[in-house]
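#help-structures

NK: newbie question. if I give both the sequence and a SMILES, will the prediction place the ligand too? trying with S-adenosylmethionine
OV: yes, paste both and it writes out the complex. here, I ran yours:
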Amino acid sequence: MSLYLLLNGSLLIVLLTLSGWYVWLRFSGEETYPVAWNEAKKSKRISKAVRRLERMYRDKTRFFNWWLQVERLKREKIDGDFAEMGVYKGRSAKVLHHMDPSRIFHLFDTFDGFRREDLEGESGEAATYTPIHFADTDEESVIQYINGNQNIRIHKGYFPGTEEVVRDCRFALVNMDADLYNPTHAGLEFFYSRLVPGGVMLIHDYNHKWPGIMKAVDEFAKKIPEVVAFVPDTDGTAMIIKNR
Ligand SMILES: C[S@@+](CC[C@H](N)C(=O)[O-])C[C@H]1O[C@@H](n2cnc3c(N)ncnc32)[C@H](O)[C@@H]1O
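OV: that's the protein plus ligand as structure tokens.
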């Protein structure tokens, strides 16, 4: 083989390797992922289920904020159950459960959509809702979809009203995603006082399209010593970490 062909062949191999590497970084998103995630993945500390969920979950900022919070709770040995208010088919619940399957996870939803009285007085996106929205779900299919362990507890029904059984529980993480003022207001009142020091509450949809959520959070923020932080995920999440 001539020197010319050898050089050309080597150059081609280098170019192909570099472009393969570029494509991998570009589409795996690895260069923009949190270094903590990349490191945990490399050292095989992330379950197959969570790696799969990450690939499927479009709002990466929301996903990684959950992951960083759950990892912080583990690292700082912050005890407490997880809770979600506003479950629908279980999409966010599945991710949170698999991020820490050892936590008891309480899921609150009507599993029957919104209440008409909660929709009255709503504006923005919520004003376009009717009681049939989000009604196409049920507890069995949520449990099946989450595909987790026995730590999932379903609390079906209108909130407030289903919280009595968890009155004595303490929470390390609460995800609120009920879209409307009434349940968000009630959830903040109930869960905040049961949030352990260092525990985190996440309230989804804090943006101008959901004035009911903004109102509930802004009113509540005036009553607590913590500063509410805002996560730049797609729909905006307000985040409260309970003072120690
Ligand atoms: C946007 S969906 C939740 C989406 C879910 N977190 C996900 O990741 O797919 C809002 C849910 O809040 C529930 N919800 C709204 N008001 C409620 C109330 N007062 N009590 C219980 N559930 C309520 C609805 O039934 C609906 O399933």
